[in-house]
Structures are given as C-alpha cells and as structure tokens.
Amino acid sequence: MQTTRTVLVTGGNRGIGFAIAAEFLAQGHRVAVTARSGDGPTGSMTVRADVTDADSIDAAFTSVEAELGPVEVLVANAGITRDTLLLRMSEDDFTSVIDTNLSGAFRVVKRASKGMLKARFGRIVLVSSVVGLLGSAGQVNYSASKSGLVGLARSLTRELGSRNITANVVAPGFVETEMTAVLPAEQQAEYLKSIPAGRYATPEEVARVVVWLASDDASYISGAVIPVDGGLGMGH
C-alpha cells in the first residue's frame, strides 16, 4: 500500500499535466495544480500561479500548504514553445522559453525543497522532452531548456539525496495532446515514421511513469532520465 502524499503539478490544467494530476488523484493522493488559466481535474485544488514569477509561486505554495499540507511530491511540468529556426529566433523567443521551462522549474523546486528538507522526504519529477537530448531543428530554445532539466535534477540529487529526496526527469516523445493535434497531417505522418512504436503516446502513459517515480517503489532512483518515447530517442 502506497503512502498518501500531497502532490503539486505545475501547468496541470491541460495536456500531460492534467493527465498527471488525474493519475495521482486516481491513486488516492491529495493533488493541487498550478495554472495561469483553466482548472485541474475534478477533485484537485487549482491555484493561480505563473512559474516566471517567484512571488506568485510562493503564494501558490502557501495556499496549498494551508489546504493540503506540505508539498511532498513536486512535478515541474509547466512549459511553452516558441519554435522557429535559429536565424529567425529573437532574443525574446529564446529567453522566454528558458525562463518558463528551466528557470520556472528552478523556482518551484527551490520553494518546494524547504518543506522537503524539513520533512526529510521529497519526490521531484521534472518533465523534459525527447528533444532535450535528441535535439530538434527549429527548437534550439526548447531543447536547451529541456536538456537543462537533466543537469538540474542531477545536481539536486547530489545536494539533497542524503535527505531522502529524489529528483528525476521524464522525457516524453510525441504525445497526443492539443499541441500535436494541430500539426498538418503530412508532418504527423513524418513523425510517426521516426517512432519505432509507430504511434504517439497517450498522456496517461506519461502520467503513469511520473506517478511511479514518485512512489515508494522508486525510492532508490534519482538523477535518472526516463524516456517515454516509443523508442524515438534510443541511445540518449
């Protein structure tokens, strides 16, 4: 029987984040999500927060702690894309993606770690992407932000590992979400050819791996990058 935990998922109002929150709820945990708009799944607590703003993160954590108790499991999932080729990419296209996807993870991890150190327990899961290590044309900003999460998790493991706090990275490949649904059919067909499994992941398949990493069964795994990509990024 797994222990019931207090879980916070950033960007939990749609896509993979929503599925992660729903899976934690299904397994009996107390779940809060941060969202700039919209809400998490029924049964979760939704708090307004922007991961680029440390004050809003602090306020969100304070609300969750008052309602559900200290955050024991943090899933840093909030992310944006601003895809374009390098020579067309503006300074703002680059820095805004880094600030949300990488610096945003740093901000929420820093705030969560206070309670985790006090409790001598914590599970940190950073949602990266196959392109973090595989690379992707038109995504130098996004892939840089997602590979940065690997260094973040591994340094956290060295700093916090002796306090029973783990930090791991989940690297999804192509997933059936609103973001992939808008791609042209020929582009989708091209992507499918490169995936050994021959299909996209469902958000639930990613969510179940995240929930497992936060469970007692994964207590000796830290600093790992777990691909959920149907074989797309093999060797990375």
From TrEMBL:
Residues 5-178 form the Ketoreductase domain. Coiled coil: none annotated. Gene3D superfamilies: NAD(P)-binding Rossmann-like Domain. It comes from the Bacteria. It holds the Pfam family adh_short_C2. Belongs to the short-chain dehydrogenases/reductases (SDR) family. This is Beta-ketoacyl-ACP reductase. It comes from Leifsonella bigeumensis.
